[in-house]
Amino acid sequence: MPFNFLKNKNRLPLAWRIAITAVVWLIVISALHWWLNYDHGKRRIVKMGYMPVITNLAAPILDHATANGDGIRFSSIKFASFAEMAEALRNNKIQVAFMIAPLSIVLRQQGEDVKIIYIGNRHESTLVVRKDLNVNKISDLAGRTVAIPMRYSGHNISIMQLMEKNSLVGKIRVVEMNPPDMASALTAGSLDAYYVGEPFAAQTLKSGDAKVLRYVEDVWPNFICNLALVRSDFIENNHEIVKMLVQSAARSGIWAKENCKEAAGIASRFWNQPVELVEFALKTPENRIAYDQFVPREKEIQHLADLMVRFNLLKSNDISGLIDDRFAKAANLRGVTDLGSILQPPRIDSEYNLAKWAKQEAEEL
User: Fold this and answer.
1) Which of 133, 128, 132, 137 is nearest to 155 (CA)?
2) What CA–CA distance (Å, rounded) separates 339 from 319?
3) 50, 121, 69, 61: which is closest to 338 by C-alpha?
4) Is the pLDDT of residue 61 over 80?
5) pTM for the complete prediction?
């Protein structure tokens, strides 16, 4: 009589039942991994977490550029908060986090083996104030409420520097607020000012509810808003993918600078924002955004960590092992023509680029 597994399953030795269960579980997990990380054409999917700000413009552009065809698919996932994004990176639900800079230092010091591989577009943050208030200088913010994206943000550190410089420590109420909520809060009168990456400041500037108090570059030249963070094991296991990611992100900025209207159109669809607003943020004032300063530099991140300690955001300024600049330094920016060219660059001239960065760094010392 043939063996009836269903009727005799309890007669199987315990070791066999455990082994069968383990095999079935392995098959299920493998299938789930395949389903989540490959599309129906068996393309490799790399998930990128981001917030919808101009410093992270590479995320929607890379998503759009790899949506069809063969090869790597860079899939962008929009988050409502940086804290949520950090947890997704911790748990490997995303492979890349376009994350606010100070939070990357916090994660590293919490024991996460992460690396900064790319700096997002710079000079895209603005401190705006309600237009109906008589606020024309920083000292006029005394007694007012100012929103920043989160405690661990460059905007918070910047406002603390401004308060210290202008003898306003303890005189301005600083609150944390998710960037998408800032414009409506200011318009409703529950905020007096907010300091954030674009296009969130542009929302109230364009509507006429706010005016610019300070552009970030006027108070902190080369300010780093967001950067790309990955886990070390992702680099070790996917070296060529990381190389492609960083080079394509860098090249996307070069393309966006020359194709502002098209870049705004792509971003607006991903961000669910009017294209006119995104284009306004990209072009106001003209040539404001810095697209070519994407190489992570230890001295900049160290300066950020030093300030975090100074303002009691961290106990240690240790950034050991946090920065991996080799991919950004080797990126080739030549031959960027159309959108497709950001993914199909000429041969990477690593020696040329590395020598260029070494010379530039030597001149700055």
Assistant:
1) 128
2) 36
3) 61
4) yes
5) 0.84
